[in-house]
Design a protein that fits this description.
With 182 residues, the protein is α+β, with helices and mostly antiparallel strands. The chain folds into two domains: 67 residues; 103 residues, Rieske [2Fe-2S] iron-sulphur domain (Rieske Iron-sulfur Protein, 3-layer Sandwich). The chain contains three helices and ten strands. The structure holds FE2/S2 (inorganic) cluster (FES). The site of FE2/S2 (inorganic) cluster has 11 residues, from loops.
């Protein structure tokens, strides 16, 4: 490509002759700066717009999702009553939530369920049948099996408690009694 006359003149003054790279890339660096600034501002505007649209999209999506949750998780059969022996536990998913939940059969007719994430730093708790506690192996925290309250360790809040309905054909999730699932 032909180097423009004013650029050619400047280059010749500086280098005695037009260098090969200037012939290959005949750009006027003086005007370049203006173009770059304009391009930069345009780019910045586009990126900001992209961020704004993205954030707005996530916000709108979360609104829809929030409205969906109660409907999806209104009533969910977790398990047949007799599929869970006394003292046993069963991890299940509640539609619309990332956090898993854990159901325990404390006695013949006594079932409890909680969110499985420890309220300290979110490790999943495990059911210790002999001690009747939910134990968090990450920092040795423990929660009562009967109430979900903190027994010892670093957690400060009880486990989110799930409202259950126990009828002849099974155990159902019907909502939250305390706290929220993530
Ligand atoms: S994450 Fe459970 S005790 Fe720290």
């Amino acid at each position: 490509m032909e180097v423009e006359e004013p650029i050619k003149k400047r280059l010749e003054e500086k280098f005695k002759e037009v260098p090969k790279w200037a012939e290959d890339f005949p750009l006027d660096s003086k005007n370049d700066r203006n173009v770059s600034r304009r391009d930069f501002i345009r780019y910045l505007g586009l990126v900001s717009l992209g961020f704004f649209i993205g954030t707005f999209g996530v916000w709108v999506r979360s609104l829809f999702k929030r409205n969906e949750l109660p409907k999806q998780a209104e009533r969910l059969k977790i398990i047949d009553r007799d599929d869970l022996p006394v003292g046993g536990s069963y991890v299940f998913e509640v539609p619309g939530h990332k956090e898993q939940a854990i159901l325990v059969r404390l006695n013949q007719n006594d079932y409890v369920a909680y969110g499985q994430k420890c309220t300290h730093l979110q490790c999943p708790v495990i059911w210790k049948r002999d001690e009747k506690i939910f134990f968090c192996p990450c920092h040795k925290g423990a929660f009562s099996g009967a109430t979900g309250d903190v027994l010892y360790g670093p957690p400060e809040r009880p486990l989110p408690k799930i409202k259950l309905e126990v009828i002849s054909d099974g155990v159902y999730f019907v909502g939250m009694e305390r706290g929220e699932l993530t």
